């Protein structure tokens, strides 16, 4: 089942599970349609995905909580799930609660005790008919941009196992890119959908704030930055997911997404940004990918021009302080939030460093929150003339394993993270949608993602544009 292919010009190997089984290279929409048409059975789809997941996980270390037996039992004892994605195999990320499975949030500070209830988003997700095979790995609390750990094997990139799969939805990205499943849950509080999408050659949309259901704890954050979504291999799957999810829960404060099955006809005003808010130059391969995409968009008839960076370097410092505040909120009252088995003594070096950094600068918090809450208005004012902003996802191509390890000295790691994750957090703070598409590759064959962002509530614009781009430049396949 496990297939290995050598990269041109290197001795490293791709890891994937694509084969001529019942899943083939179909996307989630295609698999769901084949199940509805009775070309394949739910059991056949499930067993094929289980075999695929088992075949790659030893190489990629992407699964945190396997739940294969539970998934089989669900098919055996109940009616087959209805919904757009009825019986399509998938995984949840291990920072949401699904009744009967443990939630560890990527940390050994938690006891692996099964939780009793589903999160609100999980209820919405399950109502679409998915068959959940387990939960995927993430770095501790999702704070890192690489899925690496203090005392465990990292999650590896299926395009080249010596490189990072991104984070914090790194486990989900590795499983989708390798073909274990066609689609998987992910979420994003600073780039955690878009960064692994860029690293692993996937489609990853962070939706507008409030687009999907969320937990009261998330809603109560001083600045609401966390959004759930999916990682997929096709724009069609991502569009179908949000269309179906909207039928279950529709936020009346946002324009509806609706059905999106074809490219948009309207020619858009697209602004291009290549340098980060920190003023650091983006690496040459990533810059080339953005500029090549800008040229493609111009050839397609869109109006492309240079856009200003909407915030200054102070934004990055403010976001880092807020990240540190979240580390305190998640750990200091840990037993009250997570249960009495939570152990503060077992958090990793990055989380501990963030906690200590916050306490050193706690007096800055009121001003930081004031500035972050104004970000949405600032972005709207500075980018008002543009329908879409085209930019890098990250400031350089995905790093090798170890570069962002939590074993690194905190000061060095945080400097690397700040430089690397320089484009994605703005959309989280502003509440705007942003989409990563796999539109280029490095000389060594690793994917490069390009980011498209739009005004709040304009996911439809992004998805219609993405369909147009995908038709013009089909995405590269790991199995090719």
Instruction: Report the helical percentage.
Output: 25-40%
Q: Which CATH top level class fits?
A: Alpha Beta
Mean pLDDT: 95
Radius of gyration, CA atoms, in whole angstroms: 21 Å
Largest sheet features: 8 strands, mixed
Q: Give the distance, in angstroms, between the N- and C-terminal Cα atoms.
A: 16 Å
Low-confidence stretches: 1-11
Overall geometry? globular
Strand order of the largest sheet: 8-10-9-14-15-13-11-12
How does the helix and strand content classify structurally? alpha+beta
CATH superfamily annotation: Amidase signature (AS) domain
What is the count of β-strands?
Answer: 15
CATH names the topology as: Amidase signature (AS) enzymes
* Strand percentage: 15-25%
**Count of helical segments?**
17
Report on this model:
The structure is a single chain. The chain is of the alpha+beta class and 480 residues long. The protein has a single domain, classed as Amidase signature (AS) enzymes, CATH 3.90.1300. Helices cover 37% and strands 16% of the residues. The protein contains 17 helices and 15 strands. It has helices at residues 28-36, 42-60, 68-77, 120-126, 170-177, 194-200, 216-219, 235-248, 284-299, 313-331, 334-338, 349-360, 365-373, 375-382, 410-420, 425-430, 459-472, and strands at residues 3-6, 13-16, 63-66, 89-93, 131-136, 156-157, 160-164, 183-188, 203-206, 227-232, 269-272, 303-306, 388-392, 434-441, 447-454. An 8-stranded mixed β-sheet has the order 8-10-9-14-15-13-11-12, with helices on both faces. Strands 3-5-4 form a 3-stranded mixed β-sheet. Strands 1-2 form a two-stranded antiparallel ribbon. Helix 2 packs antiparallel against helix 3 and helix 10 packs across helix 13. The longest helix has 19 residues, at 42-60. It starts with a strand and ends in an 8-residue tail after the last helix. Residues 1-11 have low confidence and may be disordered. It catalyses: a monocarboxylic acid amide + H2O = a monocarboxylate + NH4(+). It comes from Hoyosella subflava (strain DSM 45089 / JCM 17490 / NBRC 109087 / DQS3-9A1). InterPro entries: Amidase, Amidase_CS, Amidase_dom, AS_sf.
């Amino acid at each position: 089942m496990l297939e290995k292919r050598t990269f041109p010009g290197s001795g490293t190997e791709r890891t994937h599970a694509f084969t001529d089984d019942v899943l083939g290279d179909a996307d989630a929409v295609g698999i769901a349609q084949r199940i509805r048409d009775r070309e394949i059975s739910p059991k056949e789809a499930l067993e094929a995905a289980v075999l695929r997941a088992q075949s790659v996980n030893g190489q990629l270390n992407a699964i945190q909580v396997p739940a294969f037996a539970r998934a089989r039992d669900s098919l055996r004892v109940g009616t087959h799930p209805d919904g757009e994605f009825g019986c399509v195999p998938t995984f949840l990320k291990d920072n949401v609660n699904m009744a009967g499975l443990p939630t560890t949030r990527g940390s050994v500070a938690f006891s692996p005790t099964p939780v009793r209830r589903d999160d609100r988003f999980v209820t919405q997700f399950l109502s679409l008919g998915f068959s959940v095979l387990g939960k995927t790995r993430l770095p501790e609390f999702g704070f890192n941009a690489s899925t690496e750990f203090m005392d465990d094997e990292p999650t590896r990139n299926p395009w080249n196992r010596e490189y990072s799969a991104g984070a914090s939805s790194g486990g989900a990205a590795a499983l989708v890119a390798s073909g274990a499943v066609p689609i998987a849950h992910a979420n994003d509080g600073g780039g955690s959908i878009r960064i692994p999408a860029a690293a692993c050659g996937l489609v990853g949309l962070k939706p507008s704030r409030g687009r999907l259901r969320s937990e009261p704890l998330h809603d109560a954050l001083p600045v609401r930055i966390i959004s759930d979504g999916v990682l997929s291999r096709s724009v069609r799957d991502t569009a179908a997911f949000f269309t179906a999810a909207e039928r279950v829960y529709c936020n009346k404060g946002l324009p509806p997404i609706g059905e999106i099955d074809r490219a948009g006809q309207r020619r858009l005003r697209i602004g291009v940004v290549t340098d980060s808010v920190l003023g650091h130059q983006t690496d040459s391969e990533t810059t080339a990918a953005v500029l090549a995409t800008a040229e493609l968009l111009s050839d397609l008839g869109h109006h492309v021009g240079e856009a200003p960076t909407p915030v200054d370097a102070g934004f990055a410092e403010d976001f880092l302080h807020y990240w540190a505040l979240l580390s305190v909120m998640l750990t200091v009252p840990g037993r009250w939030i997570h249960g009495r088995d939570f152990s503060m003594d077992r958090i990793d070096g990055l989380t501990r460093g963030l906690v200590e950094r916050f306490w050193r600068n706690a007096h800055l918090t009121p001003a930081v929150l004031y500035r972050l809450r104004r970000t949405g208005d600032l972005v709207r004012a500075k980018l008002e003339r543009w329908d879409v902003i085209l930019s890098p996802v990250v400031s350089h191509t995905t790093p090798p394993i170890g570069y962002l390890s939590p074993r690194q000295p905190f000061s060095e790691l945080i400097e690397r993270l700040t430089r690397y994750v320089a484009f994605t957090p703005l959309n989280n703070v502003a509440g705007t949608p942003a989409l990563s598409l796999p539109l280029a590759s490095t000389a060594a064959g690793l994917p490069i993602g390009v980011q498209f962002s739009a005004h709040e509530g304009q996911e439809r614009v992004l998805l219609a544009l993405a369909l147009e781009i995908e038709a013009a430049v089909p995405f590269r396949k790991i199995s090719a």
